[in-house]
Amino acid sequence: MKPLKEPSFRESVEIMSTRAMGLMDLSPGLAEKIRVCNSTYTVRFGVKLRGDIVTFTGYRSVHSEHMEPVKGGIRFSMGVNQDEVEALAALMTFKCALVETPFGGSKGGLCINPRDWNDEEMERITRRFAYELCKRDLINPSQNVPAPDMGTGEREMAWIADTYRRMNTTDINARACVTGKPQNAGGIAGRVEATGRGVQYALREFFREPADVAKANLTGKLDGKKVVVQGLGNVGYHAAKFLSEQDGCKIIAIAERDGAIFNEEGLDVEAVRDHLMTTGGVKGFPDATYDPNGPAALELECDILVPAALEGVINMGNADRIKAPLVIEAANGPITAGADDVLRKRGIVIIPDLYANAGGVTVSYFEWVKNLTHIRFGRMERRREEARHQLLVDELDRIRADAPGVAPLSDFFRKEYLHGATELELVRSGLDDTMRSSFQAMREVWHDRADVDDLRMAAYLVSIGRVAASYRSLGL
Ligand SMILES: NC(=O)c1ccc[n+]([C@@H]2O[C@H](COP(=O)([O-])OP(=O)(O)OC[C@H]3O[C@@H](n4cnc5c(N)ncnc54)[C@H](O)[C@@H]3O)[C@@H](O)[C@H]2O)c1
């Protein structure tokens, strides 16, 4: 179905998922159940700030409860509205199914410009919003578990976790009510970088298969590829940093709120991020050309385009001017359904959001499991652990020496046992494994089905198939 006018974000997600459902054997009733958003709660609350009451509007949307808890970030931005949170909640349902994290889909948002308020004010506003959501079990370890999204991070998650804990003092699993917390408040190593790291792993997996690379009219490996990034926040910064530092990519342009900077030889991502943090923009960054028209960077000649900021930035207005042969949707919904149609027809390969930015929810799942099990992941407190393990290895050696015919401990066992993985290593390898296996599930459909010519449809077919199976087994 080709939209006649630019669809909204929610309509875009619906058009794309409905297109996939049309290729599946689903009853109309089941398809409708999967399509609709179960509920959206709107709250308007007041906070006394600077001598007066300021009213804020927030949302928490639950798209599908075929698995519980439901999961999805909380966004702080002036652009937040019901359409947006419902679109994001639907994407969470499909994303979780694709990477096989056992959650339904949800999302929340608060209509606020965080830059308008100081830290103390932000804490009061966040805690009050969290209180409103906790009261209705829209934050709860077994029912609804938020995470960071645009405009929020570890700090906000710590305030939310603390608010829930104060309201539920006897809940031993209180820490599992939200993920993306600081490590000293029950978080997990590698969560902050997870979404950008996932983008890196996704591209590595894509470039592992020459047939896929050829479909994007590219050749070779990641090394030396020219990359344009929009948004140097949590996701964009980590993706750009890892791709340039570890995979030999050249980040030739970075677009931010105040414009874009270019350097054909490649930008120093760390230095740009420092500049952005100190000045609030990219303007004035040395060794680069500046253009106040940030969105124009999306139209540059490059190998890989990484939109990592907002939804709808590639739309029917600019889709025919996009020159990158490969686009990876690090942000949620950066390509509208109308633009998706144009890009597909032009042979541009899109690695879709529901897969590309799933690194965040994957590591959030590890954090949630860690909180619920109340055990540490991986090797910690190295010296004490190693001393204890060494005693055990010595004891095993002694027993074996006394047992005729029993082989001595292998070097492999000794090494693995004494120098097991740290939490960060475990998290990264679990994430890598998830990004690979999910890509392979998409790839199989992309390669094998004659009626599927893009990765987005392949991703939706895999994930909707799993959601449908889950509903069927529930007896619906
Ligand atoms: N944080 C996560 O773990 C996570 C997980 C999955 C998906 N996402 C998605 O990734 C996207 C970015 O999220 P984030 O967490 O990195 O947010 P963030 O707030 O950390 O960063 C967003 C960045 O985009 C920039 N930006 C805002 N408006 C812009 C514009 N018009 N042009 C260029 N840059 C602009 C901001 O200045 C900021 O640097 C969102 O779509 C979000 O839903 C985030």
Please report the total strand number as a whole number. Answer: 13
**Main sheet: strand order:** 10-9-8-7-11-12-13
Query: Main sheet, how many strands, which sense, barrel?
Result: 7 strands, mixed
CATH class of the largest domain: Alpha Beta
Q: What fold name stands as the CATH topology of the largest domain?
A: Rossmann fold
- Low-confidence segments, given as residue ranges, are none
Rg from C-alpha positions? 23 Å
Unique ligands: nicotinamide-adenine-dinucleotide
Which H/E pattern describes the elements? Answer: HHEEEEHEHEHHHEHEEHEEEHEHHHHHH
Number of helices: 16
Q: Determine the CATH superfamily of the largest domain.
A: NAD(P)-binding Rossmann-like Domain
Strand-pairing-aware structural class: alpha/beta
Q: What is the quaternary state of this protein?
A: single chain
CATH architecture of the largest domain: 3-Layer(aba) Sandwich
Kindly report how far apart the N and C termini lie.
28 Å
> What amount of the residues lies in strands?
5-15%
Protein name: Glutamate dehydrogenase
GO molecular function: glutamate dehydrogenase (NAD+) activity; nucleotide binding
Keywords: NAD, Nucleotide-binding, Oxidoreductase
Active site: 107
